[in-house]
């Protein structure tokens, strides 16, 4: 099936849009009328540019306020259509989108609309053109694809078909299975868009908040399964009106769009194998068994500070790399690497970000299949020369240019620690009870969040939690958690809108997106907090008001409350269970560690505590701000 995108989805001028659409791998595009009108060249020049990029114009749109008008408006609407047919013939576009009318003088009446479309179909046929009727969710009389289909059915013309748009159908809550009643050959074109679940006026939501399939909360997979079941095999086209995308880099939006279509159709194929013969197979979405290691890029000067923190948290040095200046720190199932190389990728990561997480390695069932899926979805491969005998770990570029690696137990990669490291003979020192990585917090500009959320949810078998707003003392930070099935990989994406927030300063100070915090899970956080305190771990001091409020909210046992307070632990609870958090003091460019314990089936990340944690971090960073007694 052909992939396509509407020019309105991408920023820039007509040339920028075409270049980005072609580079992202689309087969064709929808020309949004405004984009053509704003272009300085004529239609033949535009068409030649499109062809020059190896693209095809699959649709010209929109033609508005056509059906059901009284005279003389009706005659005028036909004359307007003829002008657009002239233009389409020069462009070499053969399909026109007619969207349902919002004209204040439109009369309504399904047969009148059908008769108008029939006549327009005759005129289109005379020129070898076709038209498709689309129900806008806010159309005056036609605002549901079921009614649009009835108009098209009654128009009864071979050159008149239906155009479906997932936003208009799903945004109105119309069950997608109603599409299964429509014959596939009468569906002339399918437009796809997702959107976040926000309760607001349909028109405003559609024109400002649409996003790529998989980036929002609509059931675009259910919609496409129904479309495929009709036998439709025409173009799949993204039509995304989004304020953020209008100012984002055209190449990024286009490549995210292409990735979203491939991932969508892969999910459709897996859910509906009988009707998806036309979809190119991809390796299955990867499950994640564990975070195998997290690697810090640092320098000889800054490494001791980091290593002091690791020791204070109960990590012991367990080995060193056979050829590189990389040490391995271990505790429970956690492996941390500290890289002080002065050349190569880790060093450039250190130069550009300061001490930073340069690599994250995930243990997956089949590393080469995961790499294959990621590359097929347009991820950038990463490789760096290794010394003879060392493992070449499959890797791609992730957030902020960092590296995401894949290891498995079915290849030599399972022998990573024996092959690439010389492990200490001595038994490790006593652990502080940290057992595994609970989650990794990556901080970025707000404008990048959708892109990285799509990155994780398209490659992995993962779900995303609803976006939450965190009130930092200096502005809002948006946070979205992504979690693979079973929870072995949990990532929180934190998007900074203002430079003044902790997250915003981190992005500025570390020159771009990066891991800002790592949370380790303890099986007994009270024991862990005591062990850490005994080792000199500097916990973030939480204020007294927080504990008073906690008590008011949850009515905790006085003994529990006193223990939380004495250890600077934060607490949260949801329907599934309880959550405990301990924060370390920030270091480097604003990174910090967190220790958590999840009890029962607690599913969150302590978002309710985040405003008090950011306020405490701000106080700790600037002691001058503390009130004087
Ligand atoms: O917002 C609009 O007007 C508009 C126009 C054309 C479309 O295909 C659409 O989905 C929305
Ligand atoms: Mg549309």
Structure notes:
The chain contains 21 helices and 25 strands. It has 629 residues and is of the alpha/beta class. Helix 9 packs across helix 11, helix 11 runs parallel beside helix 16 and helix 19 runs antiparallel to helix 20 (558-567). Strands 17, 18, 19, 20, 21, 22, 23, 24 and 25 form a nine-stranded mixed sheet that branches. The N and C termini lie far apart (70 Å). The chain folds into three domains: 3-275, Divalent-metal-dependent TIM barrel enzymes (TIM Barrel); 290-423, 2,3-Dihydroxybiphenyl 1,2-Dioxygenase, domain 1 (Roll), CATH 3.10.180; 434-625, 2,3-Dihydroxybiphenyl 1,2-Dioxygenase, domain 1 (Roll), CATH 3.10.180. The longest helix has 22 residues, at 250-271. 35% of the residues lie in helices and 24% in strands. 49% of the residues are buried. It is elongated and about 85 Å long. The structure holds 3,4-dihydroxybenzoic acid (DHB) and magnesium ion (MG). Magnesium ion (MG) binds at residues 134, 165, 191, 239. GO terms for molecular function: 3-dehydroshikimate dehydratase activity; metal ion binding. It catalyses: 3-dehydroshikimate = 3,4-dihydroxybenzoate + H2O. Residues 287-409, 436-585 form the VOC domain. It is an enzyme of class 4 (lyase). This is 3-dehydroshikimate dehydratase.
Percentage of helical residues?
25-40%
Question: Would you identify the CATH architecture of the largest domain?
Answer: Alpha-Beta Barrel
Poorly predicted spans: 625-629
Global geometry:
elongated
How would you sum up the major sheet? 9 strands, mixed
Q: How does the helix and strand content classify structurally?
A: alpha/beta
- Overall average residue pLDDT: 95
Count of helical stretches: 21
Instruction: Please state roughly what percent of the residues sit in beta strands, choosing from under 5%, 5-15%, 15-25%, 25-35%, 35-45% or over 45%.
Output: 15-25%
CATH superfamily of the largest domain: Divalent-metal-dependent TIM barrel enzymes
The Cα radius of gyration reads: 28 Å
Distance between the terminal alpha carbons, to the nearest Å?
70 Å
The kinds of small molecule bound in this structure are:
3,4-dihydroxybenzoic acid, magnesium ion
Instruction: State the CATH class of the largest domain.
Output: Alpha Beta
How many distinct beta strands? Answer: 25
CATH topology of the largest domain: TIM Barrel
How many domain regions?
A: 3
